[in-house]
Amino acid sequence: MLKTIANAFSVADIRKKLAFTAAMLLLYRLGAYIPAPGVDVDAVKEIQGNFGGSGVLGFLNLFSGGGLERLSLFALGIMPYITASIILQLLTVVVPSLERLQKEGEVGQQKITQYTRYLTVGLAFGQSLGYVFLFRSFGNEAGTSVVGTLTFSKLFMIVICLTAGCTLLMWLGELITQRGIGNGISLMIFASIVTGLPTGITQWWGNPDQVFVVMMPFVALAVIVAIVFVQEGQRRIPVQYAKRVVGRKMTSGGSTYLPLRVNMAGVIPVIFAASIMAFPPTIGQLLNTPTALDFAAFFGPNTWAYVVGEVFFIIIFTYFYTAVTFNPVDQADNLKKYGGFIPGVRPGRPTAEYLDRILSRLTFPGALYLGAVAALPTILISQTSANFFFGGTSILIVVGVALDTVKQLEAQLMMRNYEGFLK
Q: Could you give the CA distance from residue 228 to residue 321 in angstroms, rounded to a whole number?
């Protein structure tokens, strides 16, 4: 493995991509420590107790890499973009014009991406507006002033800066995807979670519950092993190609396989479900009324309502995202077009039905696996302050993103005939 890493750095193209990715992530982490203009940094430090424990603000603060508790330029993180992506993907199912755009290939996808960007800006503007009033309320309760005298010009300046920070993160994520290694948005969430690991380790080691201190490494290790085992699991569908004439040449037939992964959706359903379940408590915190706060506490992280809702949305999004990324009808048409067939299955519609049946059987255990990994560790350590950093959702995202990034690096190395990471 060390030799492979050395080979990766010895290739100039890959070295540049890795350096570019690291530079963009470093810029992201730098922005998380720069406070928004018009914000009293000392006053923000006095109200940081609101972001501890197991409240929704602590959960959102984790996904912003600690930027929310500082009310920094990147306080919103990348969550508005993820929420906008969820909304657009759901609308493609019910809006015929968006469904037609999705089927138009790259041109249509570019149009949907443009709509996602516009919606991200709108969501970021509304969310930053709510955060300003929320921090002002926290400051009044603590007897301090986070934003001072809140005039329209100051409010507008802070909101615009926070919105611009979220837009900049969206752009950086797309740059990483295009010019770096891995998915930029996923890597930003990965960096946000990993940044909090030292704090989580400190809280774990200083926990008064000695049983938790002893058992936590074994629970985390078991979850990581389960994630890697299932993420790499696949069903290989045999495919046979018949001999055919191409021009003046006769191509020989051959046999290969079509790999169908147990979890084809990756960590996307978990990120989507976490975004959806963070929405109701956020609204309750922003309204800051007794009823709204009770509502926020009911759906707060690590509550039974939150766990059940998260598992439900994970299962729904797993089926939805798998259907988006793998179309059995298109796969059957491609096989028929190039003279391929599955032994024992007729080409065309029977092949599509066969692939759909196999995919449904694989997606169900894959969805249950994602829900179990996200929920069970969270339930086991829900009474500790380190649950955000060692919870199933965090570990699943970190390991899943790391595996996907390593696979992309593996593909880059295989193109240059280097022996890769994964055996």
A: 20
CATH number, domain of 99, equals 1.10.3370.10
Q: Give dist(CA 332, CA 326) in Å, integer.
A: 11
Residue 117 CA to residue 344 CA, distance in Å, equals 46
- CA 207-192-395 angle, 5° bins: 60
CB atoms within 10 A of CB 187: 25
Indicate the residue type of 291.
Answer: T
The secondary structure of 400-418 as a DSSP string is HHHHHHHHHHHHHHHTTT-
Same domain, 211 and 191: no
The answer on 75 and 172 residing in a single domain is yes
Q: Which domain holds residue 213?
A: 206-400
- Per-residue pLDDT reduced to its tens digit, 212-251: 778 778 877 887 888 888 888 888 888 887 766 555 665 6
Closest C-alpha among 365, 379, 363, 370 to residue 397 = 370
**pTM for this entry:** 0.78
| 216 burial type by CB count under 10 A (0-12 exposed, 13-18 middle, 19+ buried) | buried
pLDDT in tens, 87-131: 888 788 778 888 788 777 778 888 888 999 999 999 999 989 888
Distance CA 243, CA 12 (A): 41
Residue listed under structure tokens 């985390």: 220
